[in-house]
Specification:
Layout lengths: L5 H8 L1 H31 L2 H5 L4 E5 L11 E2 H6 L6 E15 L6 E9 L11 H4 L8 E5 L9 H6 L5 E4 L2 E9 L10 E5 H7 L8 E2 L1 E6 L5 H11 L4 E5 H14 L2 H31 L1 H9 L4 H38 L7 H26 L4 H4 L1
Parallel strand pairs: 4-8, 5-7
Antiparallel strand pairs: 1-10, 1-11, 2-9, 3-4, 3-6, 3-10, 5-8, 6-7
Length: 384
């Protein structure tokens, strides 16, 4: 007959206590999963625009910290980069936030407006390539189908063949097509239009000579890091030069270290770990205390201290595995709800699933290690 481990027999003897322990571990796992999920969605959503850029090198004003606070610089700096032999082409990008008035409710909400030259598509986003030519017409924009519902059912109306127009910074603009970028912590909605239409929207705040981002494409075979260093030495010091990956990392670093948001999500993960550790410790400590006489008896008949310690650690590992399963399942449901409610990219990843599982094992192992101190007081001489 197959032997059932002593650790499992002890745990399932008190089914209510076992259920409470598993609920506590599941709760701690859910808390860690949600905090890490929101943190990663924060980082991912805020670099989707950066990732979509079809270029090798990016220029920005050296006073710019992130996409939501881009400072302008003269486009002459960008065109000066053409003096470098390995540079193939340069492309100015305009960015700014302004009010979009919901055409159905009349309520205003800020969104991000992106202006580019419609002659060349520099955004690798679904829907941009097919519709960019439409922005050559006056007062025509492309609308992000993944924008929040507060802007109105724009995508649904447009897909039904209806004419959709709205006020953007008090100027009436027509939706000429749809694309997909997605909401972020910096912008709940997005528009893409031509550079000329961008200046029509922001006619009192910008002019063609001042841009927010300069995108550079290199000739085949050119090394981006080498050219970036050349441009750093060649261009005036008011310009910061990045490779595309460095630009992505720069934005991520801002949200991770330059704001309180990254710290808050990390702190929430730590708190979830601590809560789980305390819950498991209380369960294991009570388990040992209730069976102290039995442990003393086992010692009296020859079982070693190390054997009993292994029993407690086995209990901790069993709790970790059984508690992780419902925690993971509930998290998947919550991720779906959070994604539908916020339109943020809250998805489960293999790396996060493995990391939380390891944290759960460590959490329960630490709890078991602390609870084992009670086991040392199981002295047969005191019991008998």
């Amino acid at each position: 007959m197959k032997k059932i481990p002593l650790a499992w027999l002890q745990l399932k003897r008190e089914k209510t206590r076992l259920a409470v322990a598993l609920a506590g571990i599941a709760f701690a796992d859910i808390l860690m999963f949600m905090q890490l999920g929101f943190r990663d969605s924060l980082y991912y959503s805020n670099v989707r625009f950066h990732t979509s850029l079809q270029g090798d090198i990016v220029l920005i004003n050296n006073q710019s910290n992130a996409l939501l606070s881009m400072k302008t610089f003269s486009q002459r700096r960008l065109y000066k980069a053409l003096d470098v032999d390995t540079v193939q082409s340069v492309h100015p990008i305009y960015l700014d936030y302004t009010a979009w008035k919901n055409p159905f409710t009349g309520r205003s909400r800020n969104l991000l407006v992106i202006g580019i030259n419609p002659a060349v598509n520099i955004l690798d986003l679904p829907g941009v390539q097919e519709n960019l030519d439409k922005t050559k017409l006056p007062d025509v924009v492309l609308y992000d189908r993944s924008s929040r519902q507060e802007y109105g059912p724009i995508a649904a109306e447009f897909e039904q063949g209806k004419t959709v127009a709205a006020e953007v910074n008090n100027r009436k603009m027509k939706v000429g097509g749809l694309f997909t970028l997605g909401a972020s912590f910096g912008a709940d909605g997005n528009l893409v239009t031509s550079d000329v239409n961008f200046l029509r929207i922001f006619q009192n705040r910008h002019h063609l000579g001042l841009i927010h981002i300069g995108l550079i494409r290199l000739k085949p075979g050119a090394d981006a890091k080498t050219v970036a260093q050349v441009l750093t030495n060649y261009l005036p010091k008011d310009i910061r030069v990045f490779t595309k990956q460095e630009f992505i990392d720069y934005e991520r670093y801002y949200w991770e270290s330059g704001t309180a948001i990254g710290f808050i999500f990390t702190l929430g993960t730590i708190m979830g770990f601590i809560v789980g550790t305390v819950i498991v410790y209380q369960i294991l400590y009570t388990e040992v205390a209730d069976h102290l006489a039995e442990y003393a008896t086992l010692k009296a008949i020859g079982y070693t201290q190390n054997y009993l310690l292994m029993v407690i650690l086995q209990e901790a590992i069993i709790l970790a595995i059984l508690g992780y399963i419902p925690g993971f399942a509930i998290t998947m449901f919550l991720y779906n709800r959070a994604r539908d409610a916020t339109l943020l990219p809250v998805f489960m990843s293999l790396g996060r699933g493995v990391m939380v599982f390891i944290l759960t094992i460590v959490m329960c192992f630490i709890s078991g290690t602390i609870a084992m101190r009670k086991l040392r007081s199981a002295d047969p001489a005191d019991i008998f």
